[in-house]
Structure prediction request, 182 residues.
Amino acid sequence: MKYLLDKEETARLEFRRIESSDFEHWLPFFKEPKSFTHWNIELGEPEVECANWYTRQFDRHASGLGGMNALVEKSSRDFVGHCGLLVQNVDNIMELEIGYSLLPEFWNRGYASEAASRCRDVAFERSYSTSLISIISLTNASSARVAVKNGMHLEKQTTYNNNQVNIFRITKDEWLACYLLK
Prediction:
């Protein structure tokens, strides 16, 4: 399936397709209030929200709209969270986003940056798009740092799903300029 990073890896992480059995690993994300402090959304019961989240991801995969991959730490085999390439409609323009969400216990360890950079590289190496975005809440400084570390720059502020967000972007030409310097 286009946009999925099944069997890709980084120094510390493996990407794989999400599975229904991941539900129990991901449920703590929906039980932790800090996971949603940056989004203006009303949550129901964690079990229902987690099931709905997986349904949306499986629907994305089936519709060719990309979606999240499971992230597994290589050394411990722990489930870390999700990262992937997602087709998004932002301001009536179809864009390819690098999205990432980690379990809170894995925050601030560099996993999001590591996974996001692999998504960026795969997307440009496979010519999926000439630019990539990340949609980040105005208040989420940690995710903004991940985007900047991934070579992105703040392009604009807009409203997305009833939330004020920053749109960070990197073009393939910018990526090539950075990649060729390495």
Remarks:
- The chain has a mean pLDDT of 91.
- Helices lie at 23-31, 46-63, 111-125, 141-149, 172-181.
